């Protein structure tokens, strides 16, 4: 159920994405680093959109234009037309300052959900329950928290005798008693905007950098008699933020585990989850088997009853039902039903293979169509070619498609037979039912049902 369906029509979402992420040691803005095949910011935007807010705001700073453009593209890529408003944080003066910069945006709404752009493991379930808790308890602020066995690095939640939230204490200034607390702050909050605005006015700058911290708003709200509540997630891993490459890798493992579990529950067999990587946008049909060492990336879609792997990389590719791909690399291609690829094949972009076609070992196919029942079994290069149905391509066949300046097309008609070790010098057409003798170098078109022999006469000398 969305937030809107609960009758809350004045909700906005504010995503904090202004940080440089210096610990990432990268020229790429932190929130644009990929995890699960998407920038980490994508997952937060997806949750924000699912709440159906009146508007989504994103605070940008480091490489502001790049982050804004990427966020807009992320929303469009999944068909989201919801308004996105970028707010510039002029100087990196802390999370409180980032929200201060967004006040003109926030003041248009009654309630604000605030999230960090570097928390891709957050789940919609927890954020929605945070919103529900805020609505039901009618406080001024509600936090998403979790309990960690090792809370090092996180702000601790200090509660009163009756369990109410009193404040968030940062680890650097916490007392030994406070450091022993295991409930921590996730960085996701739901605020009544009036209380948030008033609290921001009262917090001061801290530290050598004179930064304003959003967590200090809690004490300011309590000082005015406001109530602060918390929703504690049962899934502690989801609150993990990403500040360095080690944490990025840890998040990748978590997202991959979630994806594999969803696939297995939906009817996909994954022989060895520990050696299998599947991006978040991949779709796989029932009764397909994924063998060890398989990597499925991007917008790959695989049909039912396929056999994929072992040790196969498939990216942005559409695969029909009952296909098999073994020990191969396939990118931006289409395999139609009951097509077999591999072992050790390389299928390059713009290739369409099948149905019921076969591409065998150590064969490369680039920007070509291979028709129904046709076979390219061994050690061949097929580039810029249109191969009709029931064609047999012999071992070592090459379509010589590049003349040093331009690419040219090879066309092979239905039921043609190309012998082993043939060079087809494009542009060239091989007719329907035609045969090309092994070892030929063909430079002229071959008519239907003709036999082409293009090789020097053998001479034996003693």
Polypeptide structure, described:
With 462 residues, the chain is an alpha/beta fold. It has two domains: 4-239, Spore Coat Polysaccharide Biosynthesis Protein SpsA, Chain A (Alpha-Beta Complex), CATH 3.90.550; 267-452, Hexapeptide repeat proteins (UDP N-Acetylglucosamine Acyltransferase, domain 1), CATH 2.160.10. The strands form seven sheets. Strands 12-15-18-21-24-27-30-33-36-39-41 form an eleven-stranded parallel β-sheet, covered by helices on one side. A nine-stranded parallel β-sheet has the order 14-17-20-23-26-29-32-35-38, with no helix packed on it. The longest helix is centred in the middle third of the chain and has 21 residues, at 245-265. It is elongated.
What's a quick, concise take on this entry?
This protein has 462 residues and is of the alpha/beta class. An eleven-stranded parallel beta sheet has the order 12-15-18-21-24-27-30-33-36-39-41, covered by helices on one side. Helix 7 (193-202) packs across helix 8.
Any chance you could write out the topology, listing elements then pairs?
Elements (H helix, E strand, L loop, with lengths): L10 E7 L16 E2 L2 E2 H11 L4 E6 L3 H14 L6 E5 L6 H7 L1 H4 L4 E6 L7 H14 L3 E7 L8 E4 L5 E5 L6 H4 L3 E10 H10 L13 H8 L4 E5 L12 H21 L3 E2 L6 E2 L4 E2 L4 E2 L4 E3 L3 E2 L4 E2 L4 E3 L2 E2 L4 E2 L3 E3 L2 E2 L4 E2 L4 E2 L4 E2 L4 E4 L2 E3 L2 E2 L4 E4 L2 E3 L1 E3 L4 E2 L4 E3 L9 E3 L4 E2 L4 E3 L2 E3 L4 E2 L4 E2 L8 E2 L10
């Amino acid at each position: 159920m969305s937030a809107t369906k609960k009758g809350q029509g004045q909700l906005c979402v504010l995503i904090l994405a202004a940080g440089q992420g210096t610990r990432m040691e990268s020229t790429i803005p932190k929130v644009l680093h990929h995890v699960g095949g998407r920038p980490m910011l994508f997952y937060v935007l997806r949750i924000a959109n699912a709440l159906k807010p009146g508007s989504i705001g994103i605070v940008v700073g480091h490489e502001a234009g790049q982050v804004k453009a990427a966020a807009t593209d992320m929303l469009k890529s999944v068909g989201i037309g919801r308004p996105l408003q970028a707010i510039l944080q002029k100087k990196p003066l802390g999370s409180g300052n980032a929200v201060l910069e967004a006040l003109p945006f926030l003041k248009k709404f009654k309630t604000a959900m605030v999230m960090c752009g570097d928390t891709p493991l957050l789940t919609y379930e927890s954020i929605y329950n945070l919103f529900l808790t805020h609505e039901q308890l009618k406080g001024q602020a509600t936090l998403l928290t979790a309990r960690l066995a090792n809370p090092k690095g996180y702000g601790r939640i200090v509660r009163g005798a009756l369990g109410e939230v009193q404040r968030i204490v940062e680890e650097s200034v916490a007392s030994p008693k406070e450091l022993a607390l295991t409930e921590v702050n996730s960085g996701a909050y739901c605020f009544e905007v009036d209380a948030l605005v008033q609290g921001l006015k009262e917090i001061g700058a801290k530290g050598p950098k004179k930064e304003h911290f959003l967590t200090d708003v809690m004490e300011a709200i309590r000082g005015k008699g406001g109530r602060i509540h918390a929703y504690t997630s049962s899934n502690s891993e989801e609150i993990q933020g990403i500040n360095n490459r080690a944490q990025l890798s840890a998040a990748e493992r978590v997202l991959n585990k979630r994806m594999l579990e969803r696939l297995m529950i939906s009817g996909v067999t994954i022989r060895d989850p520990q050696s299998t990587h599947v991006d978040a946008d991949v779709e796989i049909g029932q009764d397909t088997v994924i063998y060890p060492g398989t990597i499925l990336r991007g917008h790959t879609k695989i049909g039912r009853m396929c056999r994929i792997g072992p040790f196969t990389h498939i990216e942005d590719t559409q695969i029909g039902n009952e296909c098999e791909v073994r020990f191969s690399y396939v990118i931006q291609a289409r395999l139609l039903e009951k097509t077999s690829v591999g072992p050790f094949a390389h299928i390059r972009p713009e290739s369409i293979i099948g149905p019921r076609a076969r591409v065998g070992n150590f064969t490369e196919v680039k920007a070509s169509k291979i028709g129904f029942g046709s076979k390219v079994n061994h050690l061949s290069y097929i580039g810029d070619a249109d191969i009709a149905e029931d064609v047999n391509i012999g071992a070592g066949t090459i379509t010589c498609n590049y003349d040093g300046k331009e690419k040219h097309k090879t066309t092979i008609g239905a039921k043609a037979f190309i012998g082993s070790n043939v060079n087809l010098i494009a542009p060239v057409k091989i007719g329907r039912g035609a045969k090309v003798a092994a070892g030929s170098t063909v430079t002229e078109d071959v008519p239907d049902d003709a036999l082409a022999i293009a090789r020097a006469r053998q001479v034996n000398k003693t």
